[in-house]
Amino acid sequence: MEDYEHADTGIRYNGYIIFKDVFSPSLIFFVVIDDVIHVLRVLREERDWRRLLERKQRYDYL
């Protein structure tokens, strides 16, 4: 993970920083827990991703 660059969204989920990576036309949002990547959402670039991520949601596997 040290060599992999990804953007910090500034949004937290259960205390973990949500990161964003771009694979046009999709945006992938994930958290890293104990060097394991957990994908939270995959959204189209044109979606209002900040509003969607800031909603209080629960991801059952965490």
**What characteristic shape results from the CA principal axes?**
globular
Mean pLDDT: 84
The SS-based structural class is mainly beta
Largest sheet: 4 strands, antiparallel
Distance between the termini: 20 Å
How much of the sequence lies in strands comes to over 45%
Helix content: under 10%
Radius of gyration from the CA trace?
A: 11 Å
Strand order of the largest sheet: 1-2-3-4
Low-pLDDT sequence parts: none
Count of individual helical segments? 1
Q: What's the total count of β strands?
A: 4
The figure for the number of domains is: 1
What does it look like?
- The protein has 62 residues and is mainly beta.
- The chain has one domain (7-54).
- Helices cover 10% and strands 52% of the residues.
- Strands 1-2-3-4 form a four-stranded antiparallel sheet.
- Strand 2 and strand 3 (26-33) form a beta hairpin.
- The model has no long low-confidence stretch (mean pLDDT 84).
Produce a short descriptive summary.
With 62 residues, this protein is mainly beta. It is 10% helix and 52% strand. It has one domain (7-54).
Descriptive terms for the model:
about 60 residues; mainly beta; 4-stranded antiparallel β-sheet; 1 helix; globular
List the helices and strands and how they pair.
Elements: E1 7-13, E2 16-23, E3 26-33, E4 36-44, H1 49-54
Antiparallel strand pairs: 1-2, 2-3, 3-4
